[in-house]
From TrEMBL:
Transmembrane in keyword set: no
Domain of life, source organism: Bacteria
The protein's name: Helix-turn-helix transcriptional regulator
PANTHER family membership: HTH-TYPE TRANSCRIPTIONAL REGULATOR IMMR, TRACRIPTIONAL REGULATORY PROTEIN-RELATED-RELATED
Organism from which the protein derives: Mucilaginibacter myungsuensis
PROSITE patterns hit by this protein: HTH_CROC1
Pfam families recorded: HTH_31
Keyword entries, A-Z: DNA-binding
All copies of domain HTH cro/C1-type, residue ranges: 8-62
Amino acid sequence: MKTLGKKIRLLRHQKGWSQEDVAKRLDISIPAFSKIETGITDINLSRLEQISTLFEMSVVQLLTFSEGEQDQKTQNELEAVHKKLMDREAEVIDLQKKVIELFEELRHNKVTA
Protein backbone atom coordinates (compact mmCIF):
# COMPACT_ATOMS: atom_id res chain seq x y z
CA MET A 1 0.00 0.00 0.00
CA LYS A 2 2.99 2.34 0.21
CA THR A 3 2.77 2.89 -3.53
CA LEU A 4 -0.86 3.96 -3.24
CA GLY A 5 0.04 6.33 -0.42
CA LYS A 6 2.73 7.90 -2.60
CA LYS A 7 0.20 8.33 -5.41
CA ILE A 8 -2.22 10.01 -3.02
CA ARG A 9 0.54 12.29 -1.73
CA LEU A 10 1.49 13.22 -5.30
CA LEU A 11 -2.13 14.02 -6.18
CA ARG A 12 -2.47 16.07 -3.01
CA HIS A 13 0.65 18.06 -3.85
CA GLN A 14 -0.58 18.64 -7.40
CA LYS A 15 -3.78 20.14 -5.99
CA GLY A 16 -1.75 22.29 -3.62
CA TRP A 17 -3.56 20.83 -0.60
CA SER A 18 -2.12 20.20 2.83
CA GLN A 19 -2.69 16.99 4.76
CA GLU A 20 -5.08 18.98 6.91
CA ASP A 21 -7.09 20.06 3.84
CA VAL A 22 -7.52 16.47 2.67
CA ALA A 23 -8.20 15.13 6.16
CA LYS A 24 -11.01 17.66 6.60
CA ARG A 25 -12.50 16.74 3.23
CA LEU A 26 -12.36 13.05 4.17
CA ASP A 27 -13.65 13.81 7.68
CA ILE A 28 -10.72 12.06 9.35
CA SER A 29 -7.89 13.22 11.58
CA ILE A 30 -4.63 14.50 10.15
CA PRO A 31 -2.65 11.62 11.71
CA ALA A 32 -5.09 9.12 10.17
CA PHE A 33 -4.57 10.66 6.75
CA SER A 34 -0.82 10.77 7.28
CA LYS A 35 -0.88 7.03 7.98
CA ILE A 36 -2.71 6.48 4.68
CA GLU A 37 -0.05 8.44 2.77
CA THR A 38 2.82 6.65 4.45
CA GLY A 39 1.24 3.24 3.92
CA ILE A 40 0.96 2.45 7.63
CA THR A 41 -2.82 2.10 7.34
CA ASP A 42 -4.46 -0.08 4.74
CA ILE A 43 -7.29 1.64 2.91
CA ASN A 44 -10.71 -0.02 2.82
CA LEU A 45 -12.87 0.20 -0.29
CA SER A 46 -15.19 2.91 1.01
CA ARG A 47 -12.22 5.13 1.94
CA LEU A 48 -10.66 4.39 -1.46
CA GLU A 49 -13.87 5.51 -3.18
CA GLN A 50 -13.95 8.64 -1.02
CA ILE A 51 -10.34 9.50 -1.95
CA SER A 52 -10.85 8.83 -5.65
CA THR A 53 -13.94 11.06 -5.65
CA LEU A 54 -11.98 13.79 -3.89
CA PHE A 55 -9.34 13.72 -6.65
CA GLU A 56 -12.02 13.42 -9.37
CA MET A 57 -10.90 9.95 -10.46
CA SER A 58 -12.39 6.51 -10.54
CA VAL A 59 -11.05 3.93 -8.10
CA VAL A 60 -9.42 2.14 -11.04
CA GLN A 61 -7.74 5.37 -12.17
CA LEU A 62 -6.47 5.96 -8.65
CA LEU A 63 -5.10 2.44 -8.34
CA THR A 64 -3.46 2.47 -11.77
CA PHE A 65 -2.35 6.11 -11.71
CA SER A 66 1.33 6.65 -12.39
CA GLU A 67 3.40 9.80 -12.23
CA GLY A 68 4.39 9.42 -15.89
CA GLU A 69 0.76 9.38 -17.00
CA GLN A 70 0.08 12.47 -14.94
CA ASP A 71 3.13 14.16 -16.43
CA GLN A 72 1.78 13.46 -19.94
CA LYS A 73 -1.67 14.72 -18.96
CA THR A 74 -0.12 17.86 -17.48
CA GLN A 75 2.00 18.32 -20.61
CA ASN A 76 -1.09 18.04 -22.83
CA GLU A 77 -2.95 20.54 -20.66
CA LEU A 78 0.00 22.93 -20.79
CA GLU A 79 0.15 22.68 -24.56
CA ALA A 80 -3.57 23.44 -24.83
CA VAL A 81 -3.23 26.44 -22.52
CA HIS A 82 -0.17 27.64 -24.44
CA LYS A 83 -2.10 27.46 -27.73
CA LYS A 84 -4.97 29.47 -26.22
CA LEU A 85 -2.48 32.01 -24.91
CA MET A 86 -0.85 32.36 -28.33
CA ASP A 87 -4.30 32.80 -29.94
CA ARG A 88 -5.20 35.52 -27.43
CA GLU A 89 -1.85 37.21 -28.00
CA ALA A 90 -2.54 37.32 -31.74
CA GLU A 91 -5.97 38.85 -31.03
CA VAL A 92 -4.39 41.51 -28.81
CA ILE A 93 -1.85 42.37 -31.52
CA ASP A 94 -4.65 42.70 -34.09
CA LEU A 95 -6.60 44.98 -31.75
CA GLN A 96 -3.51 47.08 -31.10
CA LYS A 97 -3.04 47.51 -34.87
CA LYS A 98 -6.66 48.62 -35.21
CA VAL A 99 -6.26 51.16 -32.40
CA ILE A 100 -3.13 52.57 -34.04
CA GLU A 101 -4.89 52.76 -37.43
CA LEU A 102 -7.85 54.59 -35.86
CA PHE A 103 -5.53 56.94 -34.00
CA GLU A 104 -3.65 57.72 -37.23
CA GLU A 105 -6.95 58.29 -39.04
CA LEU A 106 -8.14 60.68 -36.32
CA ARG A 107 -4.83 62.51 -36.38
CA HIS A 108 -4.93 62.76 -40.18
CA ASN A 109 -8.53 64.11 -40.04
CA LYS A 110 -7.46 66.74 -37.48
CA VAL A 111 -4.60 67.91 -39.66
CA THR A 112 -6.77 68.22 -42.77
CA ALA A 113 -9.63 69.93 -40.95
